Amino acid sequence: MSSQQSISFIGSGNLAWHLAPALDNAGFVVKEVYSRNPQHAERLTDRLYQAEVKATLDFSTSESTIFIISVSDDAIKSIAQEIILPEEAFLVHTSGSQPLAELKFAATNNIGVFYPLQTFSAQKKIDFKKVPVFIESTNQETDGVLLLLAKSISNQVRKISSEERKALHVAAVFASNFTNHMLAISKDILQRNSLEFEWLKPLIIETIEKSLSIEPENAQTGPAKRGDLEILDKHLEFLKEDEALTEIYKVVSQHIVDRYQ
Amino acid sequence: MSSQQSISFIGSGNLAWHLAPALDNAGFVVKEVYSRNPQHAERLTDRLYQAEVKATLDFSTSESTIFIISVSDDAIKSIAQEIILPEEAFLVHTSGSQPLAELKFAATNNIGVFYPLQTFSAQKKIDFKKVPVFIESTNQETDGVLLLLAKSISNQVRKISSEERKALHVAAVFASNFTNHMLAISKDILQRNSLEFEWLKPLIIETIEKSLSIEPENAQTGPAKRGDLEILDKHLEFLKEDEALTEIYKVVSQHIVDRYQ
Question: Which residues contact B34 (CB under 8 A, 6 or more apart)?
Fold first, then answer.
């Protein structure tokens, strides 16, 4: 199996934006990018060596062997049913939450999942070497292609099941999406009081360094951890005009109190 | 004002554990440590050059000029009323949430707050140079002492009011305590499914680096940000046997959806 295999992307969102150039640089050739919005597809092909915008899901005459569906989770199944593939094509999706079975009605038996566990935003460059990639497939040949693909860009490649991947994705939502949102809330509170988010940065960096070095359950501090109900009440009083923040403060603090007290 | 001033600590918790040696190393002399639990006090004096365990709150014959109350928030007021101080003593507390007024019944007019904004755990060393210290006091002389104290250990010293400090503390709870707890939850979910917390570490590091470099509101990703209700439902189904996690997942996701959709 040569690493000169060609790839087509279906979808041009944040993940494709980072993954397609990484594969291009790793010796694969990204040939085509399809997107419902051709301008989006073109923005991505502009970052690639040889890729062209593809206007339809008819890939019957494509030179590609690997087809990567990187679209919103609810669109995967219908694209898998609609896409017309060349013979012997490998078809994979990149979703954390959708099972491999989303591809079962596709016109190929070589189906798989290629899930890079990372947070992707257009503005921020990613070093794929450190991004764990989780793969799953239905047969050895597809496994081989996915391993080749994953190892070409990442130092951490693992095979896991659809069920395990779902658990991983839920855990990642807490660890990444919710963590980032806690920072957004914190910035809001500061701005409403004309204080600087900048001032919290040393605290945030230390919090994460400590959590990763001594494990989160040993790193927990704060009024809820100490069971200091008087301070929790003061903070709720402070937040009382914002119902949503009050609710978040309550349920998260209660969960911390229940765990440590 | 010489930097040879002596300091007494009332309290020997995580903050005193880190702050007392930092001041000792910055040219002050920590002379005494009082704690309700004398063994705790002794553990701290063992880390200091000249400090001794103090058994009572009668400091009338103390050589110290600066008295730092670093105890749980609900104990500050009663200690301030009970403590017997030498003349001209400076009395400060280190709480984020308690106002300066907690000290108003103390037997000195030189009262202040010395609030280092950081998360302190016994196991993890702290570089105080990068810890912002927020000070407040009732008169210029006390301001001078607090500035000297704060600048001896930190590069970031600011004067803020009790109200501002409370907002800062609430923001810090979200940014540090809640963020760390999201990581603890994430680790729990992985362990229940025999998966490794280690695998999430590159994601967590990237999440925080990105959030601090492009601001949290630009760094948000995930199903709630995209308004992908189908995935939110799947995740809730996955979490359904854990009521508390279901509730946390719901309220945080709803807050993200409301903000970005």
Answer: B8, B9, B10, B11, B41, B53, B54, B55, B56, B57
